[in-house]
Please model this.
Amino acid sequence: MNRILSTLVLFSMVLIASQQCQAQSSNWATLKMKFKWTGEQPKLENIDGSRDPFCAKFNIPDERLLVGADGGVKNVVLYMDSRRSKAKDIHPSLQQPRKEPVELDNKGCVFIPRVVPVRAGETIRVKNSDLTGHNANFNFFANNPVNFLVPAGQFKDLKLEKEEPAPIPVECNVHPWMKAYVIATEHPYVGVSDESGAMVIENLPAGEVSFRFWHEHGPFNDEIKVNGKPAKLSRGRYEITLTPGLNDLGEVEFSLK
Model:
């Protein structure tokens, strides 16, 4: 009898745990979209790197605004504004900052990647894959500003202690065309669009979430289209109610001021 009772108790515990797990999984959302440029196609010339004999051999693109043949825009940033969001929980798998460094490389006389999402408590590893020296000048507000040399073939680590109120520029004063941006947040919910303009942010909290749009070229026009329907930004912010599962916004058509 005791064995049967113990089995029933164990079965009930497993059932409750399973139900709790299912309930928790229903609280999380995935956000998907593709950013599309609606203005005139920009014509940006390659950068002249001839002042450095090493950089002179590269075709260095002007990466301030990268628009593909179909209008997809690279390096559009969308990140959750936790102060304005009603839903602000962090998924259990994302509770802790990453232990492995987030890499920012100097390669071909450009920073790679152009946009670096990082959480407070994580480390940026600034590499130099080139055969010439670079420096990295981080113009932080909340963290202490730093500016250090990175010799050829070496790296330096930089740990971020705090989130930043805005995207932070990183510059190489040796090669003034080199620039990157750090998006430093307390949470993991930052998306950066790829070469086709596509972006996916997973394991977001379901509910009312406020996002901030950003692109280095300049502020967004307030009037945008989301999946063909007119929508409006408010100072670069976009409010959305996320439902559990996939939230596909389709194409987000925009232009910059």
The first strand starts at residue 28 and ends at 37. Residues 93-187 form a domain with the Immunoglobulin-like fold (CATH 2.60.40.420). Residues 5-24 have pLDDT under 50 and may be disordered.
